[in-house]
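A quick word before the example. In earlier lectures we treated sequence and structure as two separate objects. From today on, think of them as two lines of the same record. Here is Molybdenum cofactor biosynthesis protein B written that way.
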Amino acid sequence: MSQPSELEKKNEISICVLTVSDTRNKETDKSGGTIIQTAEGAGHHIADYRICTDEPTEISRNVEEWLRNEAVEAIIITGGSGIGFRDVTIETVTPYFTKTIDGFGELFRFLSYTEDVGSKALLSRATAGTIDEKALFALPGSSKAVKLAMEKLILPELHHIVHELTKHRKG
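And the structure line, produced from the sequence above:
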C-alpha cells in the first residue's frame, strides 16, 4: 500500500473506535472492523481501537481519555445502543454532548426503515453529537447498520462536521 500524499494527510480525520460488548473480542468484532475498514478506505486515520464491556464506567473511561487527546477529531462507538437492560451507551455518552446532531439519528432510522429493517428501525437509539471540537457517533452493534451509517451518513459529512467544529481556530 502506498503512503498517503500530503494532501491526503491534511484531509484525513483522526478517529477512535470503541466497540461496546460483553461478548466480542478483536477477532469477532465485525462492526468495529467495518468502521475501521470503511474509515481507512476513505483516507482517515484510526488513532485507537478498543473493546469494552457494557458498563458506564468503562465507556466513560475510554471516551474521556480520547476527549483529552487533542489529536482525536471523532469518536465512533458501536454497540450498547438498543433497548435492552445492558444497553447503556446512549445514557452514558449523551451527557457529554455540547450539542446534539439530531438529524443523524433521524436519518439513520429513516434509512434503516427503507433498507429492509422496516418498523424495527424504531428500536434504534443511534445518536450523534459534538463535544467541544470533537464529533461522537453512537451506532448499533449490527455490522449491517454500521456499514449503512458509515457509508451513507458519517463518511459523506465527516469533513464538513470537523470543519464546522474547528473553523473558529483558523481565523
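Notice the following. The radius of gyration is 15 Å. We will return to this example when we discuss secondary structure assignment.
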